[in-house]
Design a protein that fits this description.
The protein has helices at residues 41-53, 59-62, 75-88, 111-122, 140-143, and strands spanning 3-16, 20-22, 25-27, 31-33, 92-101, 129-134, 147-157. By secondary structure, the protein is α+β, with helices and mostly antiparallel strands. Helix 4 (111-122) links the parallel strand 5 (92-101) and strand 6. The structure holds zinc ion.
Amino acid sequence: MNLRIGQGIDFHRLENGIKLWLGGVNIPSEKGCLAHSDGDVLLHSICDALLGAAGLADIGHQFPDTDARYRNIDSKILLERSFDLIRAKGYRVVNVDSTLCLEKPKIAGYIPEMKNAISGILETDLDCISIKATTTEKLGFTGREEGVVALSVVLLTK
Ligand SMILES: [Zn+2]
């Protein structure tokens, strides 16, 4: 059995007047994630977990934010490319478990759509993708709605 585990964490600053993309889904919100790409913190954490599990460094190494090709890029494309990289090494995804940490908006109603988008890209069953959300009880930068955090763990098999 050839199993590899990977974890990824990503942070983005929230700013007014930017679209909020989480898990490949556009969520109505006053604030969105400031980033070189579309700022999809959840997909970025999954990219990092995939790349880390396969020994392929991280998203900043594979898709540098100094590269104009990645400006405002849809992070679903970054996830597809990360998946291509791990598949080229003979891996497939067993499961993904992610947690989003933000004060608002409430995202529970969007989780099925996120799981659908992610399982489609990673070629897994829907129940192999888990997305959870929590707040920090108004503590810290997430509690002050200054930023959002996503953590992901993935298991790969060959
Ligand atoms: Zn990011």
